[in-house]
Design brief:
- This is Fatty acyl-CoA reductase.
- Keywords: Lipid biosynthesis, Lipid metabolism, NADP, Oxidoreductase.
- Its EC number is 1.2.1.84.
- The chain is an alpha/beta fold.
- 48% of the residues lie in helices and 11% in strands.
- A 7-stranded parallel beta sheet has the order 3-2-1-4-5-7-11, with helices on both faces. The protein has a two-stranded parallel sheet with strand order 6-13. A two-stranded parallel ribbon has the order 8-10.
- Helix 1 links the parallel strand 1 and strand 2.
- The longest helix has 25 residues.
């Protein structure tokens, strides 16, 4: 790979289309581009909205209105709004529709003429999303973005953001290799995207014919997605449909330059534009928040297994480096962006860092009293976990139920509180069990080659080297405080 002397210069005078523009990672990418390359020609940001007024409101409240843009605002001062107006073009659309749902014909034709780089980060990341919704965004959406890209006369690269966990529950070293259409994780036969789309359509027709209630339709479609995912070897609808999206891109790309980026679990920023920025609740953050709110009293998992997390700014930096390195390369390349090979950290470090943080920064209960910081029990086998849950929750709940029946619901508040905690723990275990016992590590040889190709003077400005992370310091002093700050907003 040739040396990358100036990543920022690769974006000078370029037009970039970004889908999923209100998402966590897309915002990090957009902010970084605008901060390091003010001479970018245009950023077309696709947002789901019905009209120009709505798209502007969403952009201001969900993008530039966020603290993430604080540094850029300080840099431009009073000229910030005019800078954004000059560099950013807001596009109302929806990737689940043909032509990305863009209704303005003139705008579509202008974009086909101008766009050099497309970053597709739009996705539904809900593990148990409705199957029709997940197929529409993660699969058909990828195809619609590809079709749009093929019509862009000056396109240099399509960068598609996927997830490393399209690997399902594989163990050992997982290579940076593309999926073939119809490939499954359990050798089951018969996986066909068109057949899955027909299945979705038929199920919806059946539900509508039966005139089922909306909540029952939602439940049925969620169950269908989970059933299809597990039938072919994936643990949930999200990673299954992301894998299908990759297959569609690989099959139909022809000679279009394509890079698929597979990040692992993305966490708060390490350095840029400042440490600890994050948005939403993602993966390990649910555990941190659950403990902070006294909802998490135990968990199921193996503390010695690797917890593959990567700070969000490192992923954004890798996105820029990948786009700079692969422009006009008529190939398909896969990049894992993670830490399990280059700088592994296990779940025990998260537990220790949390204990350290909450010991130094004690929680305060609803009554104003300081809460005791203690280590939660973590069970590495399902039998011990269920035994704990029976003793800690099920038996007391049954006793409270009988008592409430006899004493006119005298302890109903206590019952409801204990029931909420029980359901919270069981929900988290159901959600994260495939990852709490994940025994794979993601080979990042392609990313390592890219790191070596980046010029020395660029490596600090576009850092995506996991070896620079001090995990104990990052978790206790950056990430956990960032999660709690986000929780309080």
């Amino acid at each position: 790979m040739e040396e990358l002397n100036s990543i920022a210069d690769s974006f000078k005078n370029k037009c970039i289309l970004v889908t999923g523009s209100t998402g966590f990672l897309a915002k990090l990418f957009v902010e970084k581009v605008l901060r390091v390359q003010p001479e970018v020609k245009k950023l077309y940001l696709l947002l789901r909205a019905t009209d120009a007024k709505t798209v502007t409101q969403r952009f201001r409240s969900e993008v530039t209105g966020k603290e993430l843009f604080r540094v850029l605002k300080e840099k431009h001062g009073k000229g910030f709004d005019s800078f954004i107006a000059e560099k950013v073009s807001l596009v109302a659309g929806d990737i689940s529709c043909v032509n990305l749902g863009i209704e303005e014909t003139n705008l579509v034709e202008t974009m086909w003429k101008e766009v050099n780089i497309i970053v597709n980060s739009a996705a539904t990341t809900n593990f148990y999303e409705r199957y029709d919704v997940a197929m529409g965004i993660n699969v058909l959406g990828a195809k619609h973005v590809l079709d749009f890209a093929k019509k862009c006369a000056q396109l240099e690269i399509l960068l598609h953001v996927s997830t490393a966990y399209v690997a399902g529950e594989k163990s050992g070293v997982i290579l940076e290799k593309p999926f073939q259409m119809g490939e499954t994780l359990n050798q089951a036969s018969g996986l066909d995207v068109d057949a899955e789309l027909r299945l979705v359509e038929e199920r919806l027709k059946e539900l509508h014919a039966d005139d089922v209630e909306p909540h029952l339709e939602r439940t049925s479609m969620k169950q269908l997605g989970l059933q299809r995912a597990r039938h072919f070897g994936w643990p949930n609808t999200y990673v299954f449909t992301k894998a299908l999206g990759e297959m569609v891109l690989g099959l139909h790309r022809a000679r279009l330059p394509l890079v698929i980026l597979r990040p692992t679990m993305i966490t708060s920023t390490l350095q840029e534009p400042f440490p600890g920025w994050m948005e939403g609740t993602r993966t390990i953050d649910t555990l941190i928040i659950g403990y902070a709110k006294e909802q998490l009293t135990c968990f199921l998992g193996d503390l010695e297994l690797i917890m593959d997390i990567v700070p969000g700014d490192m992923v954004a930096n890798a996105m820029m480096a990948v786009a700079a390195a692969h422009g006009n390369h008529q190939t398909e390349t896969i990049y894992h962006v993670g830490t399990s090979v280059s700088n592994p950290v296990n779940y025990a470090v998260l537990l220790d860092s949390g204990f350290r943080y909450f010991t130094e920064n004690p929680r305060v209960g609803k009554d104003g009293r300081q809460l005791e910081t203690h280590r939660i029990p973590v069970y590495s086998d399902i039998t011990s976990f269920h035994r704990y849950m029976i003793l800690r929750y099920r038996l007391p709940l049954e006793a409270l139920r009988v008592t409430n029946a006899a004493l006119c619901r005298l302890f109903q508040g206590t019952y409801d509180d204990l029931s909420r905690k029980y359901k919270f723990v069981m929900h988290l275990v159901d959600l994260y069990k495939p990852y709490a016992f994940f025994k794979g590590c993601f080979d990042d040889l392609n990313l390592e080659r890219l790191r070596r190709a980046v010029a020395e003077e660029e490596k600090a400005k576009f850092c995506f080297d996991p070896r620079r992370i001090d995990w104990e310091d990052y978790l206790a002093n950056v990430h956990i405080p960032g999660v709690l700050k986000c929780m309080r907003k």
